[in-house]
Amino acid sequence: MLVEALIAVPLVGAAVVAVAPNEYAERLALGVSAVPLVGSLYMYLAFDGSGNALLGGDVAYETFFEWLTLGPYAVNYHVGLDGVSLPLVVMTTVLTTLSILSAWTPIDDRQRQFYGLMLFMEAALVGVFAALDFLLWFVFWEAVLVPMYFLIGVWGGPRRKYAAIKFFVYTNIASLVMFIGFFALVFGLGDAVGSTGLPEIAQALRAGQLGALGLPGTGAAIPADVLALSAFVAMFVGFAVKVPVVPFHTWLPDAHVEAPTPASVMLAGVLLKMGTYALLRFNFTMLPEQATTLAVPIAAVAVVSVIYGALLALAQSDLKRIVAYSSVSSMGYVILGLVAYSYYGVGGATFQMIAHGLISGLLFMTVGVFYNATHTRMVGDMSGLADRMPVTASVFVAGAFAYMGLPLMAGFAAELFIFLGAFRSTVLPAAPLFTAAAMFGIVVVAGYLLWAMQRSLFGPFRLETDYDVGRAPVHDVAAIVTLVGLIVLLGTAPELLYDMMSDATIDVVEMGGELP
Amino acid sequence: MVTVAGIYAYAPAIAALPLASFLVALFAGRWLPKKGALAGILATGGSLVLSAVTLVELVLTGEGYDERLYTFVAPAETFDLGFGVLIDPLSAAMLVIVSLIAFLVHVFSLGYMNDEGEPGLPRYYAGLGLFSFSMLAFVFASNLLMAFVFFELVGLCSWLLIGHWYREAAPPSAAKKAFLVTRFGDYFFLVGLVGVLATFGTARFAGEGGFPAVAEHALAGETTVNTFGFAPETWFAVLGLLVLGGALGKSAQFPLHTWLPDAMEGPTPVSALIHAATMVAAGVFLLARMYGFYALLPTVLAIIAFTGGFTALFAATMAVVKDEIKQVLAYSTISQYGYMMLALGAGGYVAAFFHLTTHAVFKALLFLGAGSVIVAMHHEEDMWLMGGLKEEMRVTYLTFVAGSLALAGIFPFAGFWSKDEVLFETLVHGLGANPLLLGGYLLGLSAVFVTGFYTLRMVMLTFHGDPRTDAAADPHGVGWNVKFPLAVLGVLATVGGYLNPAPLAKLTGAEVDFLHRYLDGPASEELLTSAHHYGDLTHKWAGYTAGSVAGSESATMLAGAGLSLALALAGAGTAFVLYRGPDPDRHTEGLGDLRTVLVSNYYQDEYQVWLAEGLTLRAATAADTFDQGVIDGAVDTVSSVSLFSGDRLRRLQTGVVTNYAALIALSVLLGLAAFAVVGGWL
Amino acid sequence: MVLSSVPAEYYLVLSAAVFCTGLFGILTRENALMFLMSVELMLNAANINLVAFSFYWGTLTGQVFTLFTMALAAAEVAIGIGIILVLYRNFDDVDVTGPTTLRW
Domain limits at A382? Predict the structure, then answer.
């Protein structure tokens, strides 16, 4: 029942916070969010699952009971965690708590609604990572959009309405495409599955039970291979928007720039991971053959995302836009790792989800702390901030180097695994070339982050906006320093998470590639 | 696995002590009396003692050590991802060098930073501590992965320390450039590292299980590895070149040398520690560390030799026209590392390491001496504003001269012996079966003359003649903490050459080539890192054989040594004559256009800045325009089409209920008519 | 029965005439009260049909329905008059073409 508690506590908390007085909302929300944080850490320590939840592994913290019946399909309440989802759940609770902390300074209007939405989003995100039934999962998946829409649309920057609507509509259309693709598969399976449970569907697909899909009223049918391939493409496109993969990435910078800092942290840290998590769970677990067939175009998209995203980041002068575009770049690595279908590739991609979540969260938070003080995010508007805000500047430096993949920080471990896995992928033709091309991202990323730091942090102090800049409040600094600690911890001891991740992804690898 | 000798178990502490001093300086530095300096001195002193003990243990027991310490992630696949300690003659000696220089630089910093009242001292000492930690851990790294990890951390420290004075404009820019250029090299290193792991499944340096040994077996056809469809020779050469990219970046070799002169923006002790004696040595050390792999690859060796020889001459010519003392030293550093690369490429493993050792000593000495001068001159670096300092600064002058003569390669200072051996190795292997190496030899030999010239020019301008400014006439005194490191290094620069006086050994037959014997010692035998093993490998796989002039090794040696000494003396003498006298002329002005080219550093910076700003940034801007215009434009088009059509359609909604009623009635009629037609009523 | 001799078509014509009168009222009148009356006429046209066919087929269902419709029409008038009163209060008029502020 731990998973239920993890969902219910923030949900109830959200309701309570939403009616609490504004002046207590922030502390109340922090207190509420600490409960799932402690709970998920306990779950991490007591984790006893093994294998992949979709492929017959031992699921930890599983709950199952019957919910509804839709025609021939039983829709069950089925949740549980495995080595892929548990780290993501822990990251969600950690980032929620920290971003609530980082919201104390900038959010000074309608606090109770804000914190209520944050907690509601936490509940939905935990649900996304824990759900093992498609419809249940889809409810959570869509529920995440609602709080984020309001967080951007109410507390956002000057173009918040545009950004919020773009975010909502873009990802919602993507969900529709994905939904059609997935249900085409379910219908193609016909009588082979009697429920919308993800494990049942994944295992039926693995057992080769996908048949042709008859089109009612015409007598024609879509053959199984065409069906699988088009379902793969539909789901890939659907999730690619969420990740986001070039060319479906343009909602991201707009959303990030307009979103308030805590929402940016959640957006980059957790919401993007929903896309890659779903890609891993659906496309690469359920349809490995199609993934290997399309390996070259997918890898090409990944490489383009990495390099093109990094180039775009290089051209920006808004710190948030820089970090937003580099997220596009970093998520390209995840795709590359997934499509490699090798032990370190898929494991590294999973690790990168966590590493990037923490690192991009850190950078957004730090940019937010600067923004709270300077009220500008434009690189050209400020210089020498390190002089006035030394601790925050040091944290930004740490975060930037983590983003560049500095060894002994989480990003390096993730990128190393992905490169190792991709380099000798047996699935991807010319794998070393793809890998080497993607790796060039580490040079470009160093270029723009070093440039941004040089311009904004160093040199003589200068600020275009007339604000008195002093040291950041302790709670702001506490949040970012905690993240730096976590990043270094994961970078020096990746095994803390990598063991359970590789244990859960190895079954996926065996389906697509082979273990060399 | 070599047996564990007791003291080796403490080897990790050599690196851990400076790590502790990093943490102390970072978190508690501001409350400590010397802002973390003492912690750093104690830590690096401890490292020095431990390294020395390790070295003694190695010599006495003749046993090496290769032990995995920490598993990065469990090797569920064949990849071997872990950190370990490798103690063999090469790393043991390098540990002593690095910890010695780090120790002396910490002491010197008391005088250069603390006494001058610089701000940000805890940060400074934290940086030095982190640097010492990374460099020492890099040196005893037992595999390429660990080497890469600490190689990168060294780069981070260099960024931190070059940009120490971040409130000014230039240091942060120089720091960025240093990190970016070396990162560019490290990109190739990382690809190479991943390639090595993917090919061999291991990145260990030493022993039968190490990748150099596996590569040799693969070339001999005794085992097969995944060479991705290439012939093993080709694939290994590609890997070797990729890793070489990292070494070129860190060791500031052409074309990735441009960061080093800019790095002089950092505090001078940092220049001494990082940009002369240790971090820049990391590149060369890396090649030496995996020499068992390079020795198999004749093409790569030739490229290394040529790059090295070319850089030696190329950088030396630029040093001739520089006016700032640290700039001269910066270019001479690049040039000297060129010699080490030349030696490695020419099969002179011992010679390269010998030169690395002596260079670490005399270049640290020269930088610290320059630092002493700069303190005395109230932070003025232009040599034309100095002059006549030798009277006022005896200790600095004497030690600086010792270092300069060593740099110039004048007998009997340390640099003479090591540079001579580098050139000798190149010459004999060139005369043997590789005439190509003779090209490298000629480049190196020409550089000797130039080196002698710029070194003496620097000494003459700084210390001789009449004081040319008030500051030079009345220099500000320096304390014991400056003089002590200078004295230690001065003595070492004078006598360091007797570590390996190979010519004496060859002429007299006495066993005085200590370094060679040491590097060939029993401790390296089982680890496959011994000098003669490398000699066998270059002979077998790269076809290196020793040749000679006039059929005699001694004659070749004497001729080579005589030639290089004569050139060094000629260069030094020319400078002495030209810059003698109370108020020397600016003779390099006479070089005309050539001087412009040299002062502009052969326009290397320009094209690299163009690559970064002209090409990449422009591509980025174009990509941004494309992204906003075409990709986001397409997205926005979808929304504007919807909005537009919605806007048109809503005109139907007049708000007048009569219109709606009319529409409904009309629709019903039309519907009826349609039914009538389809249903056949009409 | 006299009534049974009246053919069903007569009723239909009557109902159509009443309906068209109502429709004409809706399409041409601007006074909300006239509107309401026209709507009532159209409803009653439907009622005539229901009663006529009920009688014709000899079942009572249609007539019962008519009772429902009449109750509905009464409720409708109650609400309609309420709306008209509010309309008058806000716009000082009962002209239905005037208030278009809710259209977009």
Answer: 2-514
